[in-house]
Amino acid sequence: MAPANNPAVRQRRPRLRDASLLEAPSILASQIRGIQHPRTLTWLACIPVALFGLGLFNLSAHAAQLPELTPGFLINNLWLLIASILVIFMNAGFAMVEAGLCRQKNAVNILAKNLIVFALAASAYWIIGYSLMYGEPVLKGWLFFGKGGPLGLFFDPAVTAEMVKQGALVPSVDFLFQVAFAGTAATIVSGLVAERIKFGEFVVFSLVLVGFVYPIAGSWKWNANGWLNQLGFIDFAGSTLVHSVGAWAGIVGAIILGPRIGKFVEGKAQAIPGHNLAIATLGCLILWIGWYGFNPGSVLAMNETVPYVAVTTTLGAAGGGIAATICSQIISGKPDLSMTINGILAGLVGITAGCDAYSMPAAWVVGFVGGLLVVFSVAIIDRLGIDDPVGAWSVHGTGGIWGTLAVGLFNQEKGLLLGNGFGQLGIQLIGALAYGLFAVAAAWLTWGLLSAFSGGLRVSEPEELEGLDIGEHGMEAYPDFNTVSG
Amino acid sequence: MAPANNPAVRQRRPRLRDASLLEAPSILASQIRGIQHPRTLTWLACIPVALFGLGLFNLSAHAAQLPELTPGFLINNLWLLIASILVIFMNAGFAMVEAGLCRQKNAVNILAKNLIVFALAASAYWIIGYSLMYGEPVLKGWLFFGKGGPLGLFFDPAVTAEMVKQGALVPSVDFLFQVAFAGTAATIVSGLVAERIKFGEFVVFSLVLVGFVYPIAGSWKWNANGWLNQLGFIDFAGSTLVHSVGAWAGIVGAIILGPRIGKFVEGKAQAIPGHNLAIATLGCLILWIGWYGFNPGSVLAMNETVPYVAVTTTLGAAGGGIAATICSQIISGKPDLSMTINGILAGLVGITAGCDAYSMPAAWVVGFVGGLLVVFSVAIIDRLGIDDPVGAWSVHGTGGIWGTLAVGLFNQEKGLLLGNGFGQLGIQLIGALAYGLFAVAAAWLTWGLLSAFSGGLRVSEPEELEGLDIGEHGMEAYPDFNTVSG
Amino acid sequence: MAPANNPAVRQRRPRLRDASLLEAPSILASQIRGIQHPRTLTWLACIPVALFGLGLFNLSAHAAQLPELTPGFLINNLWLLIASILVIFMNAGFAMVEAGLCRQKNAVNILAKNLIVFALAASAYWIIGYSLMYGEPVLKGWLFFGKGGPLGLFFDPAVTAEMVKQGALVPSVDFLFQVAFAGTAATIVSGLVAERIKFGEFVVFSLVLVGFVYPIAGSWKWNANGWLNQLGFIDFAGSTLVHSVGAWAGIVGAIILGPRIGKFVEGKAQAIPGHNLAIATLGCLILWIGWYGFNPGSVLAMNETVPYVAVTTTLGAAGGGIAATICSQIISGKPDLSMTINGILAGLVGITAGCDAYSMPAAWVVGFVGGLLVVFSVAIIDRLGIDDPVGAWSVHGTGGIWGTLAVGLFNQEKGLLLGNGFGQLGIQLIGALAYGLFAVAAAWLTWGLLSAFSGGLRVSEPEELEGLDIGEHGMEAYPDFNTVSG
After folding, report:
1. What is the pLDDT of residues C399-416, one digit of tens each?
2. Greatest Cα-to-Cα distance within chain C, rounded to the nearest angstrom
3. Which residues of C are less than 8 Å from B201 in CB distance?
4. Distances in Å between the alpha carbon of A421 and those of A37, A401, A416, A460, C335?
5. Of A338, A433, B344, B403, which has the fewest CB atoms closer than 10 Å, so is most exposed?
6. Which candidate, B308, B374, B303, places its Cα nearest to that of B338?
C-alpha cells in the first residue's frame, strides 16, 4: 500500500479548499445536526473561550499614571520578554523533533497537534490556568485561585507605580513566560501518545492539562505559598514541574492507548525509525536555543546569575549529548543520531532543576548522567512493553526525575556530595514522588473520562495502518513523494 | 513523467559548478553579446546599486563626540535591534510556509525567490525606499523624499548628542527595523504569484515594490506628515501598510498571470496540496516568533506596553488558529493542518493594526475572527477564479483589511463596540480603501510594464508542467528522492 | 541499489532501541574487550573530560559581595548573552546548509557531526581552549595559558565588584560568546570533509581543533598581548580567526581524504547536487540571523556601534547574494539557488573582519565582491581537483581571506581606497598568511597522526557507495521515502 500513489486516497480527501463558499452554510448546517457525534463534541470545549471573550471587552485596565521607568525595570522586563520568546520558540523544536522521529504517514497529525497545542495552551492558561497557579490561596497551601480579581478568570495586566519602583516584572511578561512553560508540558504529552491517538481527544486533554492539572501542580512549588515551596523543595526551572509532569501525564496516555501496531512482536520491541532526521536534528538545536530562555529566564530578572545559568545549561546539554553518543557507540557499535538528539535533550532536562547552583563541572556531569540514563531508560520502557514513539518519557520523565534528585547531590549549598547530608535529597525525592502521584492520578482520571465519553482514545486499526494523516486530517505531509509503505 | 529519474533531465542541467574557471570568461562574453535578451536585461536593474556603491565611500559620517550613553538610549536601541532581528527571521518563516504549501517541482523557485528577495529589499530600501518613506516632504503630505541629504539616497547613520539625550533610536536601528518590514511586503507577493511567474520578472517587481510602491504608501501613515496619519488613521504595526499592500500587489499579479494549469477544471477549483507540511508548520511557528518583533517592536521603544503587545499578539494567534481549525473541522469533517497554519497567520495579521490598544479578550476575538475569515476567503478566492497557491491573499489581504477595520470596532479608546460611534471605523475604512486603490494601481502599472518589456510574466506551458525548478533554475530541490508527477 | 527499499539493509541496522536492558552489560563487556579497535579508541578521548568533571566540584567560586548592579553592566551583559544565543543558533544553520547540500545517503552522518560538534566544542573549549586563548602569557606574545588559575583548566566564573563598576562582561557571558565562535570553526571543517570521513576521526579532530589549534591561533589577535594584535592586524569579528582557520583546517582534510567517488570523471568535476534545498535555504537564513550575534556582538558591549554593525552585516549579505545570483545567471544562464545561498554566506564572511569600520556602500561592495569570488572559487577548487562538497572553502576560506584584505582597502580610517597607503593592507596580508600557514601545518599534523593511528581517515569504498548513514550510523535519514540510488 503506497498512499501517495493511490488515486483512491487522493480522491477521497475532503479538502476545505474544494468547498465552495455557497456550499459552506449547508455543510455547516448538516454538521450541526450531527453534533451529537462525540468527535465533533470535543471541539465544543472551545466555545466557552469565545463566550468569555465576547463578554469581557473592558477587562484590560488602563495603565495608572506611572513614574519614570527605571533602567532596572526596563532591563528586567526586556530580558523576560526575550526569554519568553525563546521558550515559545521551543514549540517549533518540539514539533520538528516529534514529527521527525515518527513515521511519514503520521506526520501531519503530529505537526497539527504540536501547532494547535500552543494556541490551546495560551487560551486555557490565560482564562483559568494562570490565576489557578499564581493567584490567592483558596485551599491554603494546596490550591490557588484568584489572580485577576474575584472570579480569577483572565488576569489584570495593569502596571503599577510600585512595580516600576521595584523593577518588578509586569503582569504581561510574567504571564507570557508562564504560558510558554505551560505549553511545554502539553507538547511533551504529544510525543508519548503519538501515532495512535485521536486528534480531538488529544486537544481536550491538552486543555485540561494546561487549564487545571499543570497549574495546580505548579502552584505547589512556584506559588510562594505552595506546600512544597515551604518544605524547601528546589526546582529552579522545572525539571519536575514542567518536564516530569508532562511526561507522567503522557505515559499514562501511552499505557492506556497501548503500543502501536507492530511495535512489539512476540513481546520483543521492534525499532520503528523516524521518517525525517533532518528536521529532528533541527528541532533538537531549536530546543537547545529555546532552553536559553527556559533556564536563564527562570532567574526572573536580569543579573549576574543569568549568563552563569546559560553556561551551566550549555554544559549540561554538551555532557548529555556526549554521554548518549558514547553509550550508543559502545552498546550498538555505532553512534545513533536519535540517541544524540535525546541525550542532548535529557542533559538539558536534567540540568534544569538546579542550573543556578551547580559548579560548572557538576553541570557537565549532571548532563552526562542524564544522557546515559536516557539510553537505558529507552531500553527499560521497551522491556516494560510501553510504547513511547519518540523517547519522550526517557527525556522528560527519567531526565526530569534525575534532574530533581541531582539537586540533592550537587547543589553548591545543600548537595550531599558537597558534604551536606541527605536532607535536601530527601526533600527532592518527596517532591518528585508527589508530582508523579498527582500527575498520574489526574491524567488517569482525565484520559479515562475522555475515553468513556468519546468511545475510546485510539483510532481504528485500519486508520492506524493507513496512517493518521489520512484518517484524522484527510491529507498527507509529502504528497509529491513516493513513500514506502509501513 | 518523473523528473528525478529522467536521465535527460539530469543531463541538461546547466550547473555552475561544472563550468571551469577558464571557460567562464568566454561564457561571460557570449552572455554579454546576448544581453538584448529580455530575461538577462531584467538583471541589469541591479547595476545602479553597484555604481552608487562604488561612488559613495565616504557617506558614512564619523560619529560626533557623544555624551555618556544613557540607560534609556541603550535599552531602546537594544530592544529595537532585537525586534529587527526577529522580523528579519520572518524571511525564513515565509520561505518555509510558501515552499511547503507549493508543489515539489517548484520548490527551488519559491525558495530562491524568498531568499533573494530580502537581499533585494535591503538594497532597494537602503538606496531609495527609506528616504522616500521617512524623508522630508516634497509633495506636502503625499510624497516624501530626502532623508540622508539633498539627494535622498542612502541615509545618514550619524548618531547625535540629541539622540542620546532623548533616548531616541539611532538611524541604523530604525533603518534595520523598517527594512525588515519592507522585505515582508515583498515576500507576500511571492506566495500569490507562485508556481508560474518567471524568476527575473519577480525580481524586478520586488525592486519596484520595495523601492517605490511600499515606501510611498507607507509614508501616508508612518511619516508624521502623511495625510492618513493626520486624518487619524490607525495602523499600529502594519496590518494594512505591510500586509494588505503586499497582498494587493500580489493578487494583481495573480490575476494577470491567471491560474496554474490544472487549478480550475470546468470552472471548479481543484485542491493542489503542498508538498512538505513539515517545513510549512515550521515556517508558521517561525513567523509566530518573528511577530514578537513585528508588533511589540512597533512600540519603537522599550516600555511597559511592549510585553502587553506581545500578549495580545499571542492571543490573536491563538484565536486565529483555533477558529480556522474548528471551522475546517465543521465544514470538511476533519481539521486541516494548512488551515490551522493560515488561521494562526491570519490571527497574527489581524491583531497587528491594533495590538497596542485592545483588551486581551478583544485581542483573542480579533484573532478568532481573522481565523474564521481566512477559511471563507479561501473559498471566495477559489470561486472568483483567482489562483492563490498558498492562501497569501486570504491571510494578508483579508486578514489585513479585517485587522484594520477591527481597530474601529475594538480599540479601547475609539472603538465602536466600546461606545465611541462610527468615526474611527470610517477612517479605518477610508485608509483600507486608499491603500487598496493605490497598491492595485501601482501594481497593475508595474506588472503591465514588466509584461510588455519582457514578453510576458508567465513561464511557458511545458516549463510550468515540468516545474519551474528545472525551467528557471536548472536544478531540483530533492534530486535523491522519487517524486510523483503532478 | 536503493537502500530504502532493500529489506537486507533494514534488517541489519543495529538499533540501540532493540537492545534489551539485560543484554546491555554483556554487550558492554564485549565491547570493552574489543577496545583495542582503533574506532572505539577514538572515543576514549572523551574520558578525561569526565574525570576532570568528577574531580572539580568546588571550582565555581561563590559570588563576592557585589555593589548594586549598574544599568550599563546589566545592558552589556544582556546584549552579549543574546548575541551568544544567536551565534549558538548558527549550529542549526550549518547543520541544515551542510546536510541539505549533501546527498540523502549521507544525511544522518552530516547531521550527527554537526549536532555532536557543538557539544564537543563546548566541552573542549571550556576545559582547555578558553584559558589557552585568553589566559596569561606563557610564551610571551605567542602562546597563552592560565585563565582560571594556575592550572588554566576550566575558568573562574566569579563576578567581582570591579566588573560591576566598569560595566564589564562577566566571565560566564564572555566564555559563552567565545565558545560559540570556537564551535563555528569546527562546523566549517565538517562541510569540507563531508560524505567520506569516518565519524570517530572527525570527532577527535574537532576536539583538537577547538581545544588547541583555534585557541592558539585566536590568541595571536584576540588576546590583547597577541603578536598580530600588537602589529595592528584587524579582524573585528573573525573573517580570518574563525572562518579561514576553519576552512584551512578543513581543506587539508579534503585534500588528504581525496575526492568522493564519482566527483571527478576523467579529470573533470561532476556536479553532485544536494538532496534537500529546502533545509539548505532555511539554514542560510538561520546563519544570516545568527550573524547578527556574530558581528554586532563582537562590539563586546552595547553602544551606538552595535546597530550600525548590524546594518553593514545586512548590506554585506545582500550584496553577496545578489552578486552570486547575477554571476550564476550570466555564466550558466540560470540563477542557481545553491550559489545564492553560498553568495549570501560569502558576503557575510567577507563583511565580518571590518564590519565596524566600513561605510554602508563599502559594506555592500565588500559583500558583493565576496559573492562574486565564491562563484569563481568553486570553479577553481574543482579545477584543482579538490572536492569540497558544500562549497565550504569558497565561502569561509576565500570569503575569509577576501574579508581580511578588504579591511586594508575599505576601512574608513586605514583603507587604501580611502587614501591611506598600503600599510594596513600589508598587515592584513601578513595576518591572513600567518593564519593560513599555522592552520595548514596544525591540521596536516593532526589529520596525519589521526590517520596513522586509526588506519585511515576515510570510510571503505563499499561504505561510501552505500552511504555513510548505514555504514557509520546504521540508520537512514528518510527511511519512509523511496530514494534514488546515487
Report:
1. 999 999 999 999 999 999
2. 75
3. none
4. 58, 20, 5, 53, 68
5. A433
6. B374
Least confident piece of the model among A7-16, A164-173, B403-412, C327-336 = A7-16
C-alpha cell at C345: 554566506
Strand residues in B282-339 grouped as ranges (E): none
Which triple of cell numbers denotes residue A104? 511519514
Give me the numbers of helices (H) and strands (E) for chain A, helices first please. Answer: 22, 4
Q: Residues C344-368: what's their mean pLDDT?
A: 96
What torsion do the CA atoms of A21, A22, A28, A34 make, to the nearest 10 degrees?
Answer: -130
- pLDDT value of residue B144: 44
pLDDT (tens digit, 9 = 90+) per residue, B16-32?
Answer: 344 444 454 444 444 44
* pLDDT tens, position by position, B200-235: 999 999 999 999 999 999 999 998 888 999 999 999
ipTM of predicted assembly, 2 dp: 0.89
**Using CB atoms, which residue from C62, C154, C474 is nearest to A361?**
C154
DSSP code at position A237:
S
Q: Where are the alpha helices (DSSP H) in C101-213?
A: 107-124, 130-134, 161-166, 171-192, 199-208
Q: Identify which of A173, A182, A183 has the alpha carbon closest to the alpha carbon of residue A83.
A: A173
Q: Is A68 on the interface with B (CB under 8 A)?
A: no
Amino acid at C111: L
Say how far apart CA B440 and CA B419 lie, in whole Å: 34
Which residue segments constitute the domains of chain B, with CATH numbers given? Answer: 48-53+66-455+463-473 (1.10.3430.10)
In chain B, how many H helices and how many E strands? 22, 4
Q: Establish if A18 touches chain B: CB-CB under 8 angstroms.
A: yes
Which residues touch C7 (CB under 8 Å, ≥6 apart)?
Answer: none
This prediction has a pTM of 0.91
In A205-291, beta strands by DSSP E: 264-265, 268-269
Q: Which helix (H) or strand (E) holds B297?
A: helix B277-297
Which residues, 6+ apart, have CB-to-CB distance to A164 below 8 Å? Answer: A66, A67, A68, A69, A70, A73, B304
User: What's the sign of the alpha-carbon dihedral B441, B447, B450, B452?
Assistant: negative
Average pLDDT over chain A, rounded to an integer: 86
Instruction: Give the distance from residue A351's alpha carbon to the nearest chain C alpha carbon, in angstroms.
Output: 15
Cβ pair C101, C389 in contact under 8 A: yes
Beta-ladder partners of B265: B268
Q: Are B193 and B209 in contact (CB under 8 A)?
A: no
What would the pLDDT profile of B158-167 be if each residue is shown by its tens digit?
A: 899 999 999 9
What is the per-residue pLDDT for A214? 96
For B:351-370, CB contacts with C below 8 A are: none
Which residues does chain B have within 8 Å of residue A60's beta carbon, measured at their own beta carbons? 358-360, 362, 412
- CA distances A413 to A235, A268, A429, C58, C138, Å, are 14, 45, 18, 11, 36
| Chains with ≥3 CB–CB distances under 8 Å to A | B, C
Disruptive mutation site among A108, A266, A287, A311 for chain C (greatest number of C CBs within 10 Å): A311
Query: Chain A: nearest CA to B316, how far in angstroms?
Result: 9
B76, B301 contact by CB (below 8 A) = yes
Give the residue on B whose Cα is nearest the Cα of A98: B278
The Cα-based distances of C297 to A206, B72, B271, C141, C452 in angstroms read 40, 20, 47, 26, 41
Grid cell of A262 as nine digits = 507492530
Question: Is-contact B180 B92, C-beta < 8 A?
Answer: no
Q: Do residues C325 and B116 touch, judged by C-beta distance below 8 A? A: yes
> What angle is formed at CA C128 by the lines to CA C125 and CA C133, rounded to 5 degrees?
80
Reported as a pLDDT band with limits 50, 70 and 90, residue A223 is confident
pLDDT for residue C225: 83
φ and ψ at A144, to 5 degrees?
-120, 150
